[in-house]
Amino acid sequence: MVLFSLLPNFWRRCLGGNGNPVKRVRVRAPASVANIGAGFDVLAMAIEGFFDEAEITISKGEGRINVSSAGFDVPSGRENIAHATAEEFLNRYGIKGVDVNITLHKGIPPSLGLGSSGASCVATVYALSHLFGIKLPLSEFLELAGLCECFTAGSPHYDNVAASALGGVVIVDCANKEAYRIIPPVDIHIALLIPESVPRCERKTALARSILPKQVDLKTLVYQSSAVAKLVYAFMTGDLEILGKAASTDFVAEPKRSALIPFYWELKGFSLSNGALGFNIAGAGPSVFAICRSPEDSLAVADAMRKFASEKGMKADVVVTKIAREGVSIVK
């Protein structure tokens, strides 16, 4: 299966002729919420409202990679994940004699559980694939983008990158680097609480993974598997009641990671009592999400979250969104 229909290989045609032609593309990838409920590392959803955009130009040169960033505060140069992604791409496909200039427009706040680094990786890989005319099978695309997430997460994982690439809800086969997209038959409305005052940590995701149990007992495995199965059923059928209950259920990650989020259990109970159908941690946190029945309910739940945060002295943004049906794309 080829993930993207790319232009014919114009590398020789565009960069092998007279002069020093330049090729440019701008690509957008949406934010995502991974680890939905019990779906640790295997279930994620793309969300509307937040995007990273990679604007990349290639030209004949000496193999330099230049990265600048705009928007949310992330480093430029070699410390930017787009640099590591471009370097891995060029080395993997034996591309030499070309300069790559990347401007990363960060529209997704980093280190807050919204798939920021994954979207940057996806946008960069997609843009370079387009520019060099390289057709990547889905498994290879995910493997490459997921590997680049090591730069921030400490280990490769594929749920965020799959959601940003494909859109909708994704089920990830980690062993085979494969993903399967679900487009729910109804809109899934979401309220997000995104803390502002959480100290930034370079390896926040790695830290959040390090506190998880290395083994679980058989009883926990059965409960966790049941919750994941219910999530998949609910997303495929659009049953919002079941979706809310399943998204609220996690016997492995949530009990441990909740300790990293102030007032977590109190906020969860308050949101559920004010109209949310489901509630859990977004990715590795510290953001949280609530599944809602309608746009009106999502606004009401967002207001309740905002009130709770204010009363607790928490600095946070509260936004309403829904599952994004489209993944990575070229900006016209």
From TrEMBL:
EC number of the protein: 2.7.1.39
Keywords from the named record: Amino-acid biosynthesis, ATP-binding, Cytoplasm, Kinase, Nucleotide-binding, Threonine biosynthesis, Transferase
GO biological process: threonine biosynthetic process
Pathway involvement of the protein, from the record: Amino-acid biosynthesis; L-threonine biosynthesis; L-threonine from L-aspartate: step 4/5
NCBIfam families: PRK01212.1-4, thrB
Family from the record: Belongs to the GHMP kinase family. Homoserine kinase subfamily.
Designated name of the protein: Homoserine kinase
Organism: Candidatus Methanodesulfokora washburnensis
